[in-house]
UniProtKB/TrEMBL annotation:
GO terms for biological process: polysaccharide catabolic process. InterPro entries: GH (IPR017853), Glyco_hydro_14 (IPR001554). Its EC number is 3.2.1.2. GO terms for molecular function: beta-amylase activity. The active site is at E151 (proton donor), E351 (proton acceptor). It comes from Acorus calamus (Sweet flag). It is an enzyme of class 3 (hydrolase). This is Beta-amylase. The keyword Hydrolase applies. Residues 1-15 form the signal peptide. Keywords: Carbohydrate metabolism, Glycosidase, Hydrolase, Polysaccharide degradation, Signal. It holds the Pfam family Glyco_hydro_14.
Length: 443
C-alpha cells in the first residue's frame, strides 16, 4: 500500500478516495463503531502527502456473499429487515432489494428506535469526532452515500447488472411497493381527490427487457405523459429529492466549519436516453424526458447546500454504445448534466464507467472534461479514475495513466481514488482549480 501511495504521489496525483463502509464500521451493533483500519489508511495517505476523499457508504457492495468484494449492510440492520421486510425496496413482483434501506421509512424509528436518517447522521457525526485531527487538512471532502452504489437513485435494477453488456435494454422496475412507499403514494393520491391512483405503480410499464415502444406506459405517446403519469412521476422523483435533501441537510450541519467539502453522486443511466420517455431514468427516480429536465432539480438541490455533483460516463462514446443500442447516448446525458451543474454554479466530479486504460477511453475522458471546463467562469471540475487495481501498475497501463494525469492537469491539479471496499484498489482523479486557486481532486 505504501508503495502504491508513493507511486501515485510521484505521478502527480492529488489524493485518494476511500469508501467508509457502514456494513464494516457499525457491523457489530447499533452505535458501536470501529474505525481502526481506516485511521491507519488516512495516516498512510498523510505520510505520502496525499489528500483523502471519504465516501460515506451506506449501501451494500457486491451482489452476494460469493462476490470477493461482498460487503452487506450491518448484521443488525439485516436482522431488522428480516423481521420487517418492508424496510427493503420492493417492485411489483414482490422482489426485495437489500442494497439500501427504502427511503419510504427515512424518518420512522424502524432501526432499534432510530430512523435511517438518524442512523446515517450518527455515523457521520462519529466519523467527524474520530477523524477530527484530519478534517480539512488530509480529509478534504466527504461524499455522502444516498442510495444503491452511493448514488441518489432507486434500485430500479440490481447495481451489478448496470455493468453487463445487455444492460442497455433494461427498462427497470419502479420501486414503490413496500408498505411505506405505498402509504405515501396513497396519501398523495387522496390529497388530490384521485384515490384510485394510489394503489401502486403504473400499469403497462412492460418487462425489464422489453422494447419501450411495446409498452403502454413508456411508448412515445404513452401514459407517462398523461395527468396520471405526471402525477406518479412527480411523486416518485419528488420523494427521491426529499431523501437527498435530508442527507444534504444532515451532512451540512455535521461537517459545518470543518474545512471539508460535501458531494453527492448521480447515476449515469443513458441506455434509453434517445427515446421520448427515457424509461430507465424514470424507474431510477430521474423524471427526465424529452420535454422535462430531470437533472436541474438535483443540481439546484446540491447548489442550496454548496455541494459537488459527481457523475459517471466520462469515458463513454455514443458511437460505441449505439452499436448495441441505437437509443443509448452517454455523451448527451453527460452534456445535459454538465449544463445543469454550470447553470447552478456547482463543482462537477466525473468518473469513468468502465475500468479500461485503452487510448480511446482515455481520449474520451479528456474530451468530456472540456464540457465543463471551457468558459469564462470555471467552478472546479474533477475526474475520478475508477478503479485502481494491480493492472494499473503494469508498465503499459502506468504509462497511459501518467500521460492522462499530465493531459488533465495542464497547469491544474489531478487526484486519484483508491477504493478499498472488498480489497480492490480503485483510483480516481481530479482536474481543475477553484476560483481562488485551491486544488480540487477527490473520489
Amino acid at each position: 500500500m505504501g508503495a502504491s501511495f508513493m507511486a501515485l504521489a510521484a505521478a502527480g496525483v492529488e489524493g485518494v478516495a476511500v469508501e467508509f463502509w457502514w456494513g464494516v464500521v457499525e457491523r457489530d451493533g447499533p452505535g458501536v463503531y470501529d474505525w481502526d483500519g481506516y485511521v491507519d489508511l488516512v495516516r498512510l495517505a498523510r505520510r505520502h502527502g496525499l489528500k483523502v476523499r471519504a465516501v460515506m457508504a451506506f449501501h451494500q457492495c457486491g451482489s452476494s456473499s460469493s462476490n470477493p468484494g461482498w460487503i452487506p449492510l450491518p448484521r443488525w440492520v439485516l436482522e431488522e429487515m428480516d423481521e420487517e421486510p418492508d424496510l427493503a425496496y420492493s417492485d411489483r413482483f414482490g422482489r426485495r432489494s437489500h442494497e439500501y434501506i427504502s427511503l419510504g421509512c427515512d424518518v420512522l424509528p424502524v432501526l432499534k428506535g432510530r430512523s435511517p436518517i438518524q442512523v446515517y447522521s450518527d455515523f457521520m457525526r462519529n466519523f467527524r469526532y474520530s477523524f477530527r485531527e484530519f478534517l480539512g487538512l488530509v480529509i478534504t471532502e466527504i461524499q455522502v452515500g444516498m442510495g444503491p452504489a452511493g448514488e441518489l437513485r432507486y434500485p430500479s435494477c440490481p447495481t451489478e447488472k448496470l455493468t453487463w453488456p445487455w444492460r442497455v435494454r433494461e427498462l427497470g422496475e419502479f420501486q414503490c411497493y413496500d408498505k411505506f412507499m405505498l402509504a405515501s403514494l396513497n396519501a398523495c393520491a387522496k390529497h388530490i381527490g384521485m384515490s384510485e391512483w394510489g394503489s401502486g405503480g403504473p400499469l403497462g410499464a412492460g418487462s425489464l427487457m422489453q422494447n419501450p415502444e411495446e409498452t403502454s406506459f413508456f411508448k412515445s405517446d404513452g401514459s407517462w405523459n398523461t395527468p396520471y403519469g405526471r402525477f406518479f412521476l412527480e411523486w416518485y422523483s419528488g420523494l427521491l429529492l426529499h431523501h437527498g435533501e435530508r442527507l444534504c441537510m444532515a451532512a451540512e450541519s455535521i461537517f459545518w466549519n470543518t474545512g471539508v467539502r460535501i458531494s453527492g453522486k448521480v447515476a449515469g443511466i443513458h441506455w434509453h436516453y434517445g427515446t421520448n420517455s427515457h424509461p430507465s431514468e424514470l424507474t431510477a427516480g430521474y423524471y427526465n424526458t424529452f420535454i422535462r429536465d430531470g437533472y436541474l432539480p438535483i443540481a439546484r438541490l446540491f447548489a442550496r447546500y454548496k455541494m459537488t455533483l459527481c457523475c459517471t460516463c466520462f469515458d463513454m462514446q455514443d458511437a460505441d454504445e449505439e452499436k448495441i443500442n441505437p437509443s443509448s447516448s452517454p455523451e448527451k446525458f453527460l452534456r445535459q448534466l454538465a449544463f445543469a451543474a454550470r447553470m447552478c454554479n456547482i463543482p462537477l466530479a466525473g468518473e469513468n464507467f468502465v475500468t479500461k486504460l485503452d487510448d480511446a477511453s482515455l481520449t474520451q475522458v479528456v474530451k468530456s472534461s472540456k464540457l465543463y471546463s471551457s468558459g469564462v467562469y470555471e467552478p472546479s471540475l474533477s475526474f475520478n479514475y475508477v478503479r485502481m487495481n494491480r493492472d494499473l501498475f503494469d508498465s503499459h497501463n502506468w504509462t497511459r495513466f501518467t500521460r492522462l494525469v499530465k493531459q488533465l492537469s495542464h497547469s491544474r491539479n489531478f487526484q486519484a481514488k483508491l477504493d478499498f471496499g472488498g480489497g480492490e484498489f480503485s483510483c480516481s482523479s481530479t482536474l481543475a482549480a477553484e476560483e481562488v486557486g485551491a486544488a480540487f481532486a477527490y473520489h
